[in-house]
Amino acid sequence: MSALTKLRPWLAAILGLIFTGFGHIYLRRWRRAAMWVLLVLAVAALFVPSGTLEALDAAETMSPSEFTSVLTELLPLLAVSFASVLDAFVIGFRQAAEAQAARSAVDDADDSVAAVSDPDSDAVTCPECGREVDADLDFCHWCTTRLDEPTDD
Known about the structure:
- It is a single chain.
- The protein is mostly helical.
- The chain is built from 6 helices and 2 strands.
- Helix 1 (3-18) runs antiparallel to helix 6 (75-116) and helix 3 (30-47) packs antiparallel against helix 6.
- The protein is rod-shaped and about 85 Å long.
- It starts with a helix and ends in a 19-residue tail after the last strand.
C-alpha cells in the first residue's frame, strides 16, 4: 500500500472528529455525509434538552458536577458522532483495500502478458515500460519512449 492509501482511513476519521460528515466528504461519499449530519441534527433535536445546548453556548464557567450533567445529557449526540467517525474510518479502510487489490490485479495482468509473449514474433519489448511494441515503430505507443535511441539508466 502507498503511504497515502494507508493514511486515507485515518485522515477520514480525524476529519470526522473535527465535524460530523467531513470524513465522508473527504472520501467522496456525499449522501452518506449528509445522512450523518441530518442524523446528528435529529438526535440533537430529539434527545438533547435545549437547556444543555444553551449552557454550552453561553460558555460560562461550570462546576465539575454541572459539566458532568451536561456531558451526560450530550451522550446521545456524542455517540452518533463517534459512530460517524467509525463509519468514515471503515469506509476509508475498505476503499484502501479495494485500491490495493485493483493495483495488484493490474500488476498480475501485466506479469501474465509479459510471460505469454512469443519470442519468435516481430514485436519488440519497450525498455521503459516493458510492453510489446511493433518492430516497425520507432517509439513505444504505450509510453512514447523512442526505441532507436539508447536510454539513459
